[in-house]
Amino acid sequence: MGRRTVLIVDDQSEFRLLARELLETDGFIVVGEAGDAQAALRAARDLRPDLVLLDVRLPDGSGVDVARTMRAWKAPPVVVLTSTADYTDEARHCGATGFIPKGLLSGPILRATLEAP
Amino acid sequence: MKPTARLPWLLVPAAITWAWLATRQQQRADRPWTFLVSDVVPGLVLIAAGLTIWSRRPQNRCWWLLVAAGFAWYVGDFLQSTNDDVVLGAFAFGGWYGLFVGWAVLAFPNGRLQHRHDRVLVVTLFALLAGRSVSRLFLHVPPDVAGYGVQNRFLPITDDRWWRMVEGVFARAYVAAMVGVLMSVAHRWIRSSRPGRRMLSAALFAATALAAAVAYEYATGWNAELPGATGLRIFYVVWWAYAAMAFALAVGLLRVRRTRSAVVDLVAELGHDAPPARLGDALARALGDASLTLLPWSAAAGRYVDDRARPVELPVDQPNRAVTRIERRGEPIAALVHDIALREDPGLINAVVAAVRLTIDNEQLQAEIETQLAEVAASRARIVAAGDAERRRIERDLHDGAQQRLVTIALALRLAETRLDGDASPGVRGVLSQAVKDLSEAIVELRDLARGIHPAILSESGLCAALESLVGRSPLPVRLDIVLPDEPPSAIAAAAYFAVSEALTNVVKHANADDVTVRVIANDAVIRIEVTDDGDGGADTHAGSGLRGVADRVASVGGTLRLHSPAASGTRVEVELPCVSP
């Protein structure tokens, strides 16, 4: 498998910056960033990333709803939610592949989440 | 009761003695027993009726008028005396009972003469009887008058024309006066509505009996020598008519008293939750006055209002209508518009006024309490809502502030860790790894703290998701059944969430349970929550602040919390919440 392209969606620019550096260090290609739900949908449609790293709590809506919308697309990207453990059930219901607490984000953990059965 | 207030009972032995003496006089004339009974009983009935009225309504003048009539009743019996002076006295003063009886009928039921023509009638009766007494004392009486052998020692005038003229005038005028009494009562009866008529019926009956009796007596000539049995029968009719009349007056007054009692009983039965319209209707029924209207005073409008809160004018100068204003410390409470006949019993009106005042006072107090309770409930709901809003704000601040900063630091440390040169000492790598680990634990603790303050998932994903998350985090296996067609208002959702959260916390901490079920069933009106376990039981809402606080929160939105937790039989927490915000 080649290097995966990633879209990072979070309203905190510092988080996006550090996450980009972490993931690129670990072999991912960060193709874009978005700070809110609308921008996330636009970027995912335009950039067609392999996966979207999506924060649950966004300024203009819920990351769960964004994931649900992407899930309905013809070629849905893989979505991984980041937030607290409260949203694991929601992640399952909205079709997200997995869930990673933000503080534990790293390339290996993301890869493990994607490869988990 | 003062000792002197019992003195009228002394009239009982006096009356019996007086009646016995009178009967002794008649026995000299060898009267049949039917005569003696018909002669003695009406007098005693008059006295008994008077004393009955006195015992119930001592302020009512009718009582002594009837007693006086009873004692006067027996004066005529002394015509059979062997003493000439006693015979003359009986002849001159017999028949005065008519004055007292007529007066009592006109003064019925409150003991006062209400109209000028009534006072004229009483004065006329007095004048007629006084004139006849003077005539019989001082004018010559023919010796054939009933064979009583009256000896007039004051003015032995042999010409009896003057006496006959006075007697003739008296007889006609007396009948006319008694018919006047009848007409006066009949007039009042006709002009009255139902309560007035009910009260006056006894007086009307009495007046009719009286007029009939007098008509019998004087139509046949006061001393007519009718053939034996026929003459006696007429006397019997007259005498028993007086007895029936006395009985009717006493019954009439007792009926008024029953009405008064009925009013008091009615108001007591109505209790403090009777609205003015219902109270007015009930009073109208109790008093038998369908026209009675209770008009509460509106302080806001500064006027009396009807049962639809529309301002109304009190009637002025309407025939047969009267207005009784009900006040408290000079401030109007209500007005009663009723038949004027009710005023003839001031005690009845006083009872009604007191009862209405009490009922309206109670109602106003009840309304004030309900208003204050509603304000307290609304205030409590606002306090809880404000608290929830503050908790949401704090949680959001924690999430967006400290938590994000810690997350960022954790990522930065992890990035630093990955970029360390291969030459970095293992000690530095170990310190960095430990820092990342500690930081991650701090982030988890901070999230738990924030969730305890307010679960973000509740605001962002709703009650169903929040409960699923809550159950999912529980260290015990929990069955969750949810039927929640619509998302409830935030205050209701928060109350439901914290109720389940507290119940599950208690199960984990204290119950030693193996089987735990959370059931949330909602319909259009209510959300029913049930958290059951098979643990040790013995929980108590008063034992700790947790469930008590949940119960307060539930109550703040108009819900209820019930706890069933018998020892060793598990625990069931039942919560009912309305589906609308308070």
Architecture blueprint of SSEs:
The complex is a heterodimer of chains A (117) and B (582).
Chain A: E1 5-9, H1 13-25, E2 29-34, H2 37-47, E3 51-55, E4 57-58, E5 61-62, H3 63-71, E6 78-83, H4 88-93, E7 98-101, H5 107-115
Parallel strand pairs in A: 1-2, 1-3, 3-6, 6-7
Antiparallel strand pairs in A: 4-5
Helix pairs in contact in A: 2-3
Chain B: H1 11-27, H2 33-56, H3 62-73, H4 84-93, H5 97-107, H6 116-138, H7 161-191, H8 194-219, H9 228-270, H10 276-287, E1 293-298, E2 303-304, E3 321-328, E4 331-339, H11 346-419, H12 426-453, H13 456-473, E5 478-483, H14 490-511, E6 516-522, E7 526-533, H15 545-556, E8 560-564, E9 571-578
Parallel strand pairs in B: 5-6
Antiparallel strand pairs in B: 1-2, 1-4, 3-4, 6-7, 7-9, 8-9
Helix pairs in contact in B: 1-2, 2-3, 2-9, 3-5, 4-6, 5-6, 5-8, 6-7, 7-8, 8-9, 9-10, 9-11, 11-12, 13-14, 14-15
Query: How many structurally independent domains of chain B?
Result: 3
State the CATH topology of the largest domain in chain B. Answer: Rhopdopsin 7-helix transmembrane proteins
Strand content of chain A: 25-35%
Counted beta strands of chain A: 7
Q: Which class do the helix and strand fractions of chain B yield? A: alpha+beta
The residue ranges of chain B in which pLDDT falls below 50 over 5 or more consecutive positions are 222-227
The value of Rg of chain A in angstroms is 12 Å
Largest sheet entry of chain A: 5 strands, parallel
Uncertain stretches of 5 or more adjacent residues of chain A: none
Whole-angstrom Rg of chain B = 47 Å
Q: Structural class of the helices, strands and pairings of chain A?
A: alpha/beta
